[in-house]
Design a protein that fits this description.
Oligomer: single chain
Number of helices: 7
Structural class: mainly alpha
Strand content: under 5%
Number of domains: 1
Order of helices and strands: HHHHHHH
Pfam families: DUF4168
Helix content: over 70%
Keywords: Signal
Distance between the termini: 39 Å
Shape: elongated
């Protein structure tokens, strides 16, 4: 049962998996997320150039909302024993996280790019901290 809960939680947040790591980047920059899943958004971020302060401000707000959704659904998933209901919760969580990002005038790609760059870019981490 514990494995099911762990697996369903992990799957539920795969779409926005970097949100947790982005938040942790400020607290523990030495912790690295799984490499291959995050390499592609990072490369896209490098190619797209500089991230503006406006985008960072939008990211901060979106990340707060995504974290609230993630926390809410993590609790629900940990209490759910039925696999079908857990999958439904996962889909609902992904939809709500997507809405949270879009409601802050970002798309998932930009959000994930910023989150990925926060993992390895101390300057960007400093800029984000200054805007909070």
């Amino acid at each position: 049962m514990t494995k099911l809960k762990t697996l369903t939680t992990a799957i539920a947040f795969a779409t926005f998996g970097m949100t947790a790591t982005a938040a942790m980047a400020q607290q523990a920059p030495a912790q690295a997320p799984q490499g291959s899943a995050q390499a592609q958004p990072f490369e896209q971020g490098q190619q797209s150039g500089q991230i503006t302060d406006g985008e960072l401000k939008k990211f901060i707000k979106a990340n707060e909302e995504v974290a609230q959704v993630r926390d809410e659904f993590s609790q629900k998933l940990n209490q759910e024993n039925d696999q079908q209901k857990a999958q439904e919760l996962q889909m609902q969580a992904q939809e709500e996280m997507q809405k949270a990002v879009e409601n802050n005038d970002l798309d998932a790609s930009t959000y994930n790019t910023i989150a990925a760059r926060l993992q390895t870019d101390p300057e960007l981490q400093d800029r984000l901290s200054a805007l909070q």
